[in-house]
Each structure stands twice: as structure tokens, then as C-alpha cells.
UniProtKB/TrEMBL annotation:
Membrane topology: Peripheral membrane protein
Protein name (Swiss-Prot/TrEMBL): Molybdate/tungstate import ATP-binding protein WtpC
UniProt subcellular location: Cell membrane
Organism: Halorubrum ezzemoulense (Halorubrum chaoviator)
Domain of life: Archaea
Pfam families xrefs: ABC_tran (PF00005), TOBE_2 (PF08402)
Main location: membrane
Assembly mode: The complex is composed of two ATP-binding proteins (WtpC), two transmembrane proteins (WtpB) and a solute-binding protein (WtpA).
Amino acid sequence: MTTGNTLVELDEVTKRFGDLTAVGGIDFSVRKGEFFTLVGPSGCGKTTTLRMICGFEHPTEGEVRIDGRSMGSVPPEARDTNLVFQQLSLFPHMSVGENVGYGLAKAGVDAGERSERVSEYLGLVDLDGFEDRNPTELSGGQQQRVALARALVNEPAVLLLDEPLSSLDRKLRKQMQVELRRIHKQTQGGFFYVTHDQEVAMTLSDRIAVMNDGHIEQIGPPEEIYREPASEFVADFIGDTNLIDARTAERDGTTVAEIGGEGGFGVPAPNRTGEVTVSIRPEDFTIANGDGALHGTVVERYFQGDQTNYLVDPHGDVGELQVVIQGRESAVDTGADVGLDVVDGAPTVF
Ligand SMILES: Nc1ncnc2c1ncn2[C@@H]1O[C@H](COP(=O)(O)OP(=O)(O)OP(=O)(O)O)[C@@H](O)[C@H]1O
């Protein structure tokens, strides 16, 4: 299973706490130079997984390998990993420079080289010249960047990040996402990122693993996860979607899921029969006054600048649908009778 390109491998890893199975037999690998994100709802087992990679927890069953080597009972400090937490964990009594250089000092790196490496990594996180500042004088975003520099300075094979942006406000979080991408590109190390925030996962990652209740539902690049969700859970958790109950029927020799009954429209559902669920993303609809595959009434309309969101109550037993139209066009008002069409090939049938 090991290839030269693989950095971290989890092989049938299970972690039980008493009767509770926090992680139930998961497999994945993180490649060299990859930004890999584990995303899932609170309590699904993300942090436990990360803690098994860095050695703070040990699998009940299965094996963690780093660079092809079984981690068995290798203690955290002997693993080629470093960790950045959600809570800012800088030493308040040390300067920024001392914080960043802490691991190097512990490893016995001499003062001259330490000082060079510290300024190099402060430069990487865009904090040139901050060596003598005190961490308490810095903003939350700057402190988080110091924590990043501190974790990166001894060049670990894998940087583990546990919700490092969640204590920042929305704007700063967006900025730090861009920064993290850039820092990852420059260091070319493996990043293993854990978050419940699917938007962050989509923005940052080369690949995402979606976790649910201790198991992995799907692994793939963000676009694939979004466009071709492997399960109803993934479709619902990653981005917004409409999950519509439907039944299959034969139309012109092909099997379709009928949305809105016989008069509604058919979504191709090859090899399926009976009750199904159809996932349609809000942006995969088009909306117009008048005709469409489905008819309905606009219940609500929310203008959001770059897009307009509609809540449409379709005729037939479909349930309200969320529709998003990007751009400036928003010619349909609340209360209007509208037609909805769906972009060909966009829906997924479960
Ligand atoms: N040391 C422990 N002892 C007992 N149960 C634990 C322990 N650590 C975690 N758990 C349980 O294991 C499950 C998974 O927890 P974990 O922290 O891995 O989830 P998570 O996905 O990281 O959640 P969050 O996003 O809220 O941090 C939870 O039900 C949690 O209560």
C-alpha cells in the first residue's frame, strides 16, 4: 500500500473509548505536499484521528504509518509532525522570536542558525521584524501566524492543524485561508487539517475526507465531493442542497426519478427502482416568470449582493426548494408564479 508519494497512512484504524467507538476502521493516506482536510460535524471523530497521527492517542486496532514507518508506540516527540491548535498556545512570557525558536532551542540548534531560521519563518508568515514583540501585543490573526511559524520552523514532514482559524472573525478567517494556502505552497510539506467548516475545507484543500460518526463517507478533491457526492450525508453536509423524495418510473424506455409526480420532470436514475432521494444544488436551478419543468410560487426572496436566494413552493408534493441565482439578474419577485428548470446532469440520485 505504501508508495513513495505517501506521507501518512491510516490502515483500518479504530479507536474506542470504553463502549464508544469514536473512530470505526478508517483508511486514508495523505500524500507528500498535499493539503488534506478531514471535515465533519462535531463529535464525528476528527480530533481523535488527528491525535492518533501525532501520537497523543493510540489506535485500539489498525495502524498509523508516517513515511512508511509504523508508529506503533513511537511517542509524539519522536514523530515527524507538529501541531497547531484552535486555542492560541503561545508562551506569553517569551518574545515572538523566542516562541518561534523554542523547538529549535530544545533541539540544540545554535543561536546564530536559530535566529536565521526564526526570521525566515516569520517572513514566511508575513511578520518580518516581529522577533522582539510580545505575543500579547499582537492581534488574534498575528498570534495564529506566530503559532504557524513556530510549528513550521523545524520543518516537520506533516503539519497537523486542528481548527486553527475558528477563533478568528469571518474577515480575518478569510484572509488567513489565503495565507495558509500560500504558506502551504511555499513549504511544500504535507498539511493535515481538521475542521467542521465545510467552506474552509473546500477553499483550502487538495483533497477532502468527509467524516460522519466515526467513518469516512468520501475522499476526493473538493469539486468532486461537491459535484458527485457519494451519499446523502455528503450532499447535505458539503454546501447547500435540496433533498427531494421521489419515485422512479419508466419514461421513453429510461428510468427516471419523477419530481413533482407525473406532470413534473424526470431526473435520469439508471439502475434504480422505487423510493429515491434526489439532491439538487440551489444554483443548479434556473428560475423564470412563466414556464418551466416545475411550477411554483416564490415564497421568499433574499437579495445578497452577488446573488439572490429564492424559496420556491412548487406545485405538487415536493416541499419548498431553495434556489440561488448568481449575478445581477433577479427579475422575479416574491409571490410570482414561476417556472423552474434544472441544469442537465446536475442532480444526484441516492
Ligand atoms: N478521551 C476521551 N474519552 C472518552 N470519549 C472521548 C475522548 N475523546 C473523544 N471522545 C469522544 O469521541 C467522539 C469523537 O470525538 P472527537 O473529539 O474526535 O470529535 P470531533 O469530530 O473532533 O468533534 P469537534 O468538532 O466537536 O471537536 C465524541 O463522542 C467524544 O465525546
